[in-house]
Amino acid sequence: MDAPHLPEPSAEKRVRIVGSELVENYTVYIIEVSVGDHSWTVKHRYSGFHDLHEKLTVEKKIDKHLLPPKKIIGKNSKSLVEKRQKELEVYLQTLLNRFPSSTPKVLSSFLLFHLYEINGIAAALAEELFHKGEQLLAAGEVFLLRPLQLYAVTQQLKLAKPTCANGDAKADLGHILDFTCRLKYLKIPGTKAAVGTSNIEEQCLPFDLSVFKSLLQIEISDCDAGQITGLPSLKPTLATLSIHLSAGSMKEILVPEASEFAQWEPEGVDTDCPVTAIIPTWKMLTTLDMSRNFIRCIDESVKLIPEVEFLDLSYNKLSLVENLQHLYNLVHLDLSFNKLTVLEGVHTKLGNIKTLNLSGNQLETLSGLSKLYSLVNLDLSSNRLAQLDEIKNIGTLPCLEKLSLNNNPMCIIPDYRTKVLAQFCDRASEVCLDGTTTTEKELDTVEVLKAIQKAKEAKDRMANNEKKVSDAPGRATGGPQSSSSSLVAPPSSSSPSLSRSTCSSQGNHK
Description:
Layout: E1 13-23, E2 26-35, E3 38-45, H1 46-59, H2 78-98, H3 105-110, H4 113-116, H5 118-139, E4 143-144, H6 147-158, H7 174-182, E5 185-189, E6 207-208, E7 217-221, E8 228-229, E9 240-244, H8 251-254, E10 264-266, E11 277-279, E12 287-289, E13 310-312, E14 332-334, E15 355-357, E16 377-379, H9 392-395, E17 402-404, H10 416-421, E18 432-433, H11 440-470, H12 495-509
Parallel strand pairs: 4-5, 5-7, 6-8, 7-9, 9-12, 10-11, 12-13, 13-14, 14-15, 15-16, 16-17, 17-18
Antiparallel strand pairs: 1-2, 2-3
């Protein structure tokens, strides 16, 4: 279903009373309010109308007889309720027509304009920041703004009208702008469902982030990336960027302006290729969390985040590790719960990585990890690793301290822990496997396994040497050797000295 058209702040306001409910011994009227194509429902009993009218007659000199009178006898009868329903609808519509451009605060509150209507939302936010803005900024806590609130502010700023149109200084838009200029930590949680009792779909509401001048950290969730503007304006200050359930690609977040150019390059890069645009980099960004999105590839937009140290791309749809060679400062990478099957050559892209999370993928081999010499923490849980021999690919990594292999087929092999630890040879005591520190008993077993392995290797070498000798020409059949085909040199007077010289040389080498 198509989303409702977005109403202008001056859109026509309409009201209908669409029904009623009997609650205990009184009647509640169901009011449908519409502004443009946005609509929502409000419920009030007659006493609520009466209180509203009392305030309006004092504040706005409304005619006292405009509101239908109270009824004591038969107040809940069907005929009276239906008649009063029509009268109350006329009453509310008359009030809205009386104040077309600036709805009185008491009426705005009665009809929940502060939750669903653009002017009311902006005014409520301005008043909140008038009272608490300085305190919130001083506390340095994360401030939460809904996409609907940001949309309301964005729309208000487009209007050629005073920032305090309703005459209430507390509701001046300037309070919002002053606050957003100084705010450092922001969270924008959207929703895929309609807002409250309305038909408003937040993910369809465009909003502009360029009013924020000092943000260090921002988190956005459940918003359509195409509706977000002004993200590049945060580059001078932003250190942490988190985007969830909002993006189909990294490019639409990191370089949304790329769609305007045929060819672009990040600033500071020498290139012989013709470019149509030079894009500034995210100089301050050190943490990028784009987990739980719909990303299928790590595209070239990572060139624009050269300072990133922490990158989280978990719970996406990635099948390849690519383009990360541009992130020279990357030390923590989370690629868990993607669709990775192979990791060939990842050391050429992850030269300085210390923490790597590959859990929840489809890996059957670890051959691509053998040269990640700086790796300290490695999570391989919930993959398809079945063969213990695969551990040899990481057994020689000199810095590896924490390894997780939980929920892999190899975990059901008898004595799985000690057989894995044995692959680390002299470093077995330094490795914490599956969150459990290696015990002395396990280390004793590892020593036994290592001794058995060494004996087996020695036996295999001996068998191979004997096989080579027996396979030499003339030896296999025991027949006479010809000088031209023999692989064994005939004895000579110089042989002993050559043999001693060779052993001596080997001894020195050792």
